[in-house]
Amino acid sequence: MEKILVIGCAGQIGSELTLELRKMYGENNVVATDIKPAQKEITESGPFEILDVLDTHRLFGTVSRNKITQIYHLAAILSGNAEKKPIASWHINMESLLNVLELSRELNLKKIFWPSSIAVFGPTTPRVDTPQFTVMEPNTVYGISKLAGERWLEYYFQKYGVDGRSLRYPGLISHKTEAGGGTTDYAVDIFYEAIQNKMYECYLDEHAYLPMQFMDDAIKATIEVMEAPADDITVRSSYNVAGVSFSPKEIAAEIKKSIPDFKMSYAPDFRQAIAESWPKSIDDSVAQRDWGLKNTYDLKRLTQTMLEEVGKKFSAK
Ligand code: NAD
Ligand code: SER
In a mutational test of the pocket of ligand 2, which residue from 74, 77, 79 has the highest number of ligand atoms less than 8 Å from its CB? Predict the structure, then answer.
């Protein structure tokens, strides 16, 4: 029987992934943890503990006590916030992964999941249809920590046989939990502002083309890569995931189809330089070939779903 530990369950991904894992493995077999209190849906549907992933002693205790077999480690400081506190963010992003890898080696866990990001690429990477294997010279603290994390993941697999799996998520778009300080989060915020105020000031330039993915597709991909037979996993760093690419101007035009008087303005800040260093689109053919990655939300479907779901939040108030 699998017993799963989710670290960072209260975040944008964790708040949805935890519930999906509970459906699959049984509510009591998924122990949700975060450094902060989690949403009611999580605390009331199964075990929840406050846990700082940097507290090695408590982390080992939680894993041993609950007889954990798999870990989903989602705690991190994202790109925008990491630039404001580079050293602290490096510490959290790296030490947490090393804690989880070391624990997985010592306690012989079956599998771990740790997400990487399109931020591993940098200004010298080809920006269109970015290949799985290419030049990687990230120039953000977040990107450097994700690239180093990928190398550690592969190292632990090759040296110790730790079965770590990973996806380079593009910007994730969801409506259940607020996004957490990333460069791509304008594509979540825009829906809240469009519905409440019919206007949005974007911190990226109108042409800042970036790869994005709707959360349902991201959760599905996460579970699929974790469920795939170990022999099918040929990439032990992290898999490219393409999602769907668009610019702020294009998503604004799509929103206008439903809210004709929606107005978008642009005031690019420090995140524009980050966006310019990341790919515009991604080649994810290796993930398609290895374990059948599929994207089902295009810009139109994603926009309609976000307008409907975010709209319900405000009409319910
Ligand atoms: P988030 O910021 O929404 O959630 C992270 C969670 O980790 C938060 O609930 C936070 O309280 C928790 N956390 C922070 N420090 C902790 C600590 N010391 N101990 C325990 N918990 C701690 O982030 P997210 O968007 O859910 O991202 C999850 C993972 O996916 C991260 O590794 C992130 O880099 C990666 N990722 C996210 C995106 C995206 O668009 N959301 C894209 C690429 C990669
Ligand atoms: N969405 C994330 C960010 O912008 C990408 O990893 O930081």
Answer: 79
